[in-house]
Amino acid sequence: MSRKANVEYTLRSLSNLMGEKRRRQPPPPPPPQPPSRREALGERSLIAAAESCSSLNSQASSSGGGGGCGDLERAARRQFQQDEPAPFVYVAAAFSALGGFLFGYDTGVVSGALLLLKKELRLDATWQELLVSSTVGAAALAALLGGALNGYWGRRACILLASLLFTAGAVLLAAAPDKETLLGGRLVVGLGIGIASMTVPVYIAEVAPPHLRGRLVTINTLFITGGQFFASVIDGAFSYLPKGGWRYMLGLSAIPAVIQFVGFLFLPESPRWLIQ
């Protein structure tokens, strides 16, 4: 066989081998489908976590060690892509929004209580104005401090503090022997309103999944208006008592405050505050 024939035979053999190898390769996978709206929202919320995990994996690979946080990434992604969120999300939002309910109740109930207070304690116009405006002023000051308290203590601790202030203020108002004690109770309630109005929406937004965040945050506003409506009902129910009806009006706010405090003893801290 001549040299030219050997070369042709070799080329033919190589061509046959390459063709056989191409035939053995699996077909290319189909192009990925665009993510759904829910998956896109969940993935956008995981971008920061994925970047952190990638840096940890790179460091582990360069140092020759294993590990990383791939399992944590996958678990978090599965949780965000669940069809239905855990009931915990709704429980946390409901207990948090009790702060909004107390906001609405304590700012609305005083209008009916003043009708009885001005007769029983002989309040003039100045004292009536003080009892109403002192709560709003204290709430404004507490809201200014609420940001620093949220960053230092956390959202959960601030909501617990607001619950304690609501309870203490309700007890002072219900047992007040004079107008000075009433003013002190209204100031304490105002501090609770300021801290709660600053903290509750932040806690709900940081606990809720992305696709439910806006819906759950509006629960706080719904509870505020619900508290004002309930305050009007309580004012009408106890306005017929000849003496001391205002004590029930102002003191009943301790019940939702205690419920919120007990509930938050079992609820976790905001995940965003924990990773700061």
From TrEMBL:
Major location category of this protein: membrane
GO MF annotations, alphabetized: myo-inositol:proton symporter activity
Residue stretches making up the Major facilitator superfamily (MFS) profile domain: 92-276
Keywords: Membrane, Transmembrane, Transmembrane helix, Transport
Annotated TM spans: 87-105, 125-145, 157-177, 183-204, 216-234, 246-267
Biased composition (Pro residues): 26-35
Identification of the protein by name: Proton myo-inositol cotransporter
Family: Belongs to the major facilitator superfamily. Sugar transporter (TC 2.A.1.1) family.
InterPro entries attached to this UniProt entry: MFS_dom (IPR020846), MFS_sugar_transport-like (IPR005828), MFS_trans_sf (IPR036259), Myo-inositol_Transporter (IPR050814), Sugar/inositol_transpt (IPR003663), Sugar_transporter_CS (IPR005829)
GO cellular component terms given for this protein: apical plasma membrane
Localization per Swiss-Prot or TrEMBL: Membrane
Any one Pfam family match given in the protein's UniProt record, by short name: Sugar_tr
Keyword field contains Cytoplasm: no
